[in-house]
Design a protein that fits this description.
Layout (H helix, E strand, L loop, with lengths): L34 H10 L6 H5 L1 E2 L2 E2 L9 H14 L1 H4 L8 H4 L11 H5 L2 H10 L13 H17 L9 H8 L23 H6 L21
Antiparallel strand pairs: 1-2
The structure holds heme C.
Heme C binds next to helix 4 and helix 7.
Amino acid sequence: MHNQPKYIPLRASEFFHDGRSARLPVEHTVARGTTAEANQFYKEKDVYLDNYFLTGKIGTLEGDKFPLPLTKEVLLRGQERYNIYCTPCHSRVGDGNGMIVNRGIKRPPSYHEERLKKAPIGHFYDVMTNGFGAMLNYQAQIKPEDRWAIAAYIRVLQVSEDASLSDVPPADRNHIQEPANMPTASPHATDVVPVAPSPTPAQDMNSRPALNNRGNENKTPKKEDKR
Ligand code: HEC
């Protein structure tokens, strides 16, 4: 273990003719996540790759414009990414009562409080990019365009919790006023529909065996285990 056939950085090599152990990348190598690659992606998607797109800030202030074409596709992508990355703490409706919070992590603020409803959209992007207080950042896990999609979906959640009947197109109002006729499962399962909040701690705790007993029921100590 002590002597390994490896080179530490900048050590000379007798193996290569130029005497260097550090090798240059093969010609035309493209590193993952380079700006060349990113530029190509954003060019195809017709997005200008400016500072605001990458920071959510104009100068030092959080901006309030959405830098992508805002389509239903973007919102659905945002919903999907949000449900993967944010719901464990923030919950599916964004009230801050996620599963992990029930297990003791600091409870995040609800997206539906006045301060966050008024926050510019760049704030949500910035929180994901740089973290906020006790929350770590999601820079490595979530690409910039997905961070924007999530920020847009948080706006969907905020509006959905605060909507009135007049926000619904007249043709659809009847469905809402007749809850008895509503199907139990949405026929449009892929539509942007905020889902029910996560179970309360009480319900959830009762439905599971106590953590420290799990998996130990059938174990009897064996002699061979003792060393
Ligand atoms: C592991 C738990 C956890 C996850 C996962 C998480 N957050 Fe948070 N979030 C927190 C906590 C805790 C706070 C409160 C931080 C504080 O005030 O110290 C917070 C705060 C926030 C805030 C409010 C900032 C403010 O101005 O008060 C936003 C917005 C936010 N998170 C967005 C997100 C988004 C978007 C995701 C998913 C990409 C996400 N969070 C994932 C725990 C989490």
